[in-house]
Amino acid sequence: MVGEYRKELTRQRTNHHKGVQMEQKKLDLREVLEFIDPVDCSYEEWLNVGLALHHEEYPMFVWEEWSANDGERFHPGECEAKWNSFGSYTGKQITGATITQMAKDNGWTSSKQWDNTAIPFGAMVMANPDPYKIIDKTWVESADIEIPKHYSEEQRVADLIKYLEILFDPEDYVGYVNTVYTHIDNEDGHEIKIKSPTKGSFGRTQNQILDALRSNKKVDNAIGTLDEEAGAWIRFNALDGKGVKNNNVTSYKFALIESDEMELGKQKAILEQLELPIAAMVYSGGKSIHAIVHIDANDYNEYRTRVDFLYKIVQKNGFTVDKQNKNPSRLSRMPGVMRAGKPQFLMATNIGKESFKEWEEWIATVNDDLPEPEELDALWDNMPDLAPSLIDGILREGHKMLIAGPSKAGKSFALIQLCISIAEGKPWFGFDCAQGKVLYVNLELDRASCLHRFKDVYEALDQQPTNIANISIWNLRGKSLPMDQLAPKLIRRAEKKGYKAIIIDPIYKVITGDENSADQMANFCNQFDKVCTELKCAVIYCHHHSKGNQTAKRSMDRASGSGVFARDPDALIDLLELEADNLDESKLAGAPVDVSQCTAWRMEGTLREFPRFKPVDLWFDYPIHRVDEGGFLSMAEFDSAQAKGLDKMNKRKQAAKEKKQQQLVDAFNIAAAESNFSNRADIKRVAEIMEVSEKTVRRYLKEIPIYTVELGELVERVNG
After folding, report:
1. Burial class (CB in 10 A: 0-12, 13-18, 19+), 528
2. Which domains, ranges and CATH numbers included, belong to the chain?
3. pLDDT digit string, tens, across residues 534-552
């Protein structure tokens, strides 16, 4: 019996703590198991938990205790029998990593590792060390509970009527139990009689029960004779009238929150402080309060998801919830009846938030890790220090920078030069750099090519590798992941390394979602913020230009994809090619490079923290960029292809303008003729003729000012 097994488990625990000290683990799997509910496990999952615990040399009672939380499927002795057979198990090895992964799927996070299993991103970057914890149980004051001394028949009927009206519709079948069966159990060596509910009734509708209550005016007469020692139960979700199992549930409106392990006043206080969307709160007549909570799910899968979240929140906030009550067909205590001399009465209805959705949003809001607003006058004379400059006049430490340019601009080489400049504390294209450690995340080149590039750039710069220990390279070609998955792994590897900058080259390899979607790219860019915040270092990355002519665009509009790319970073460095071939050869005499072997580029910047710098002209003298210090490129124009594209664009704009003007003139003439005026026309009529809005006509007038507007009419200019 269950009682005997409890004694045996106690003996095992005692022996274990006295002399059988387990080997120290990376993680205590007993704590991890708290995030796995055996009720939700398949047989295979349940068995895998046992195999994992056996493999990691935990005692059998750990599996037994955990399994006992599934009151419906748990059978004393089954765990021990299976455990004894594990020694001959020849299947796939099941380790502690299986348990940690199952727990992660249920929201568990840890700062430790098990078998090199990746830590979820939320665990690494969550500012709140205990997300969703709102209440400190130790500070909760017990709420007052007034138990009726005399629970009149009138009040009993009123409670049950109100309960049924709130939870059910008139045609809903209601399952309830007013009869019990008696069985013997063994608890602590003593045989005790236990009264348990039967299957009960499930063939009456809410309307039928209410009619019986109102006409008979007694609960017993309406639902049948009660065992007032045991009380009565009710199923809080509607049924189909054919049975009482989960597949007989027709609506997934409510879930049950209950605990037998807490003082009643604290139960009530926590339930109220959490503002749970409680439809009905019932005193059980025993050790617990039964809170019927709005779930409002569309189907069973959504019900399970929402109930899991609900249970997770109440547990985190000090309410020791009975996990066996997760099923939608579960019985709860019925109000309006007596139980061993105590009333099962309706304590409250419709308290807290109105719906599960509203409560879920509230939980997220009150538990966010956002800072509180600050009053400027309190900070005016004590401003916080600005982050030090990493690249003087361009980028601060802990900020983000994007380098954008076409495919042949040498962006990767420019980033390698930047790595070297930071590592050695040397200028980068004329801008001083703070010295420090830097991590270069290589997503594109094979390992050998990447390493050789660094050496080639060092040699081309004629720079001694005095501080190459400041450079780390993470080669991920063929192993890159979407940024939301890469970020936590990056953070884990970079922790405590003290990097001043992390350079990611290129980002198209790690883009998550559609790069033309603003909301998806906003989420993508947020990953860089998390890296900056967690590691307190700058993040620098590069991206390519969109196709077509870029000359006529602003720098922040040239990068491919959504404008979020260029608007999100604190600094944008943009490269555009110059046409050096068109320069007079005499003007290039004395240039420090072989002009025939080089390409020319103009570097522009759009900055959030610093004034815009004067464009810098560069020679890309493979494998490095050299600043055009002699001003040889100062008169250079953008390359001919781009110039041609710009001319073509300007011609299209001019043609469109001329077309608009002719349409406006034609519409004006028609409208004026209709009104018998030569120089006046109604603006609404002009809009009708042009088949555009009046607002559009007024916009055309600003672009093509050949008419003025007076008193709502178009008036031809005198000199027009």
Report:
1. buried
2. 2-131 (no CATH), 153-366 (3.90.920), 389-638 (3.40.50.300), 641-716 (1.10.10.10)
3. 899 999 998 877 554 545 4
